[in-house]
Amino acid sequence: MDIATLFSAMPGNVAQGIIWGIMALGVFMTFKLLNFADLTVDGSFATGGAVAVILITGGWSVPAALVMATLAGVLAGMVTGILHTVFGIPDILAGILTQIALYSVNLNIMTGKANVAVSVDKFNLLVSLRFVSKTILVASIFAIALISLMYWYFGTAQGCAIRATGNNPAMSSAQGININLMKVITLALSNGVVALSGGLMAQYQGFADINMGRGAIVIGLAAVIIGEVLGHAMIGKRMNFIVRMLFVIIGGIVYYIVIGIVLWLRMPTNDLKLFTAIIVAIFLAVPYLRGQAKSSFRKAARKGGQK
Amino acid sequence: MLTVNEIYKTFNAGTVNEKHALNGASLTLQEGEFVTVIGGNGAGKSTFLNAVAGVWPVDAGSILIDGEDVTGLCEYKRAKYLGRVFQDPMTGTAADMEIQENLALAARRGKSRGLGWGISKKEREQYHEMLKILDLGLEERMTSKVGLLSGGQRQALTLLMATLQKPKVLLLDEHTAALDPKTAAKVLETTERIVTENNLTTLMVTHNMKDAIVHGDRLIMMNEGRVILNIAGEEKKKLTVEQLLHKFEEVSGTEFTSDKAILS
């Protein structure tokens, strides 16, 4: 348990945190803005990785492969959107159906193999765990570009319509917004971002894996919620939209730093998912418990007794 | 401006909860006419408004707005013709969005929502002036979230949103019922002013018989999913609540039952 090992692992954790933070921006769109718990992401993250790696190893340029990975994610999101809006399947179930279907789709994309390697020695990859500082730089540029795009988009008339749909669907319909269309658009964009992040992650780790997206929704939610709690604690009510999105990335970084510390403490890797679930549960519970602390029946009873 | 021809709507058809909410209700509104709608519990007042708004399709009958048949148009497509204010102050606005953003959403009702800015600088100035007229101090809080406003403020804002783009028909569904009497009176006063100034064709459901008599050019009463009374002009001006109750019993053969109407 040498503290130096911990520090030497930190840049890698930060790099992974930013890449997962990009993924979490996708989750932020559906979970926070559209108020839609989308479980497609576990599948579309791996789809992004699979498409990127297969195309890169097939001779495509890395940027073009990432564009295709993003488009594959967009398609996956549209499927969930259509299952939900056209066929009336509840949101969580629609996402799970697409997710499970994507498992087969992803295997097919990876020509039946569960794992396809892409070597940084043979290909000119954008990010890699062999070049951590370059990864941090490139991933940060992606994150900032994406935040700027999202800031612009959600300020447009269409973006406002999406936020209204998530906020009050009845009012949105009354104001002439096609809420079903808005849902499909948001799910498509969200999963596009998630798949882009999957494409980056596959390059970073040097392979695409059929299971690379397992639990992605939980990590995405962890980043969104950790970011929100931290942002609330540090900046409070002056949080604007752009800062909220920055804190999603920060949430991803903090999450991976915590994971790094836990691994450094020699926690068995088998227990990592359990630990992740506990962290997310704690951060989800904090805002609720804080509200309860201000006004609870127990407190009311205690105060009433003092009178 | 609005023509409703014998519309029918049955909820939960074929089950024990079957409810014939609309039974051939018909109504015609001339341009600029302000009609108040009253009726007992379950008379079909709100259902009638929802049918006009296209919340769900009607089983039979037709609805025409300004000569165009909108019977087959879904809610969001019909929205370009209609301004709506609801009973629950929470329904008409997006709580997590700013006051000015809510107004900008309403200003784009019936227009395509593309990639232009969601709100322009010119609009901001325009909204500032409009909010000033409401006299609620909202013009100084344009970037506040609507969720921070009181019920009365939210209803006044919804009213402004509904009429920001002149609607062909304004639908008010007991929009003062959830407010305290003082606030209700103020919102009603604002309603009257906006409707008169813009010469809006208006359909207002209310449970308050006095309000129904005082406001509007014509009063209709609904019972069992039909329009059973239609009082306009001089007759309406002289009308009293007692006369109205009496007329109801005469036409329907039953006693008027509305807890809200009796309590108010």
What characteristics describe this protein?
heterodimer, A: 307 residues, mainly alpha, two-stranded antiparallel ribbon, 12 helices, 2 strands, 76% helix, 2% strand, B: 264 residues, alpha/beta, Rossmann fold, six-stranded mixed β-sheet, four-stranded antiparallel β-sheet, 10 strands
Topology:
The complex is a heterodimer of chains A (about 300) and B (about 260).
Chain A: H1 3-34, H2 41-57, H3 62-85, H4 91-109, E1 115-117, H5 132-153, H6 157-167, H7 169-174, H8 179-205, E2 207-209, H9 216-234, H10 241-264, H11 272-294, H12 297-306
Antiparallel strand pairs in A: 1-2
Chain B: E1 2-11, E2 19-29, E3 34-39, H1 45-53, E4 60-65, E5 68-69, H2 75-78, E6 82-85, H3 99-107, H4 121-134, H5 151-164, E7 169-173, H6 181-198, E8 202-205, H7 209-214, E9 218-223, E10 226-232, H8 233-238, H9 241-252, H10 259-263
Parallel strand pairs in B: 3-8, 3-9, 6-7, 7-8
Antiparallel strand pairs in B: 1-2, 1-4, 4-5, 9-10
Task: Write a brief structural summary.
The complex is a heterodimer of chains A (307) and B (264). Helices cover 76% and strands 2% of the residues of chain A.
Question: Which ranges of chain B are low-confidence, i.e. pLDDT below 50, for 5 or more consecutive residues?
Answer: none
User: Which topology of chain B does CATH recognise?
Assistant: Rossmann fold
Kindly report the average pLDDT value of chain B: 90
Q: Per the principal axes of the C-alpha atoms, what is the gross shape of chain A?
A: globular
Mean pLDDT of chain A: 92
How many domains, in number, for the residues of chain B? Answer: 1
Strand-residue proportion of chain B: 15-25%
Q: Which range best describes the helical content of chain A: under 10%, 10-25%, 25-40%, 40-55%, 55-70% or over 70%?
A: over 70%
| Topology pattern of chain B, helix = H, strand = E | EEEHEEHEHHHEHEHEEHHH
| Count of strand segments of chain B | 10
Going by helix content, strand content and strand pairing, the class of chain B is alpha/beta
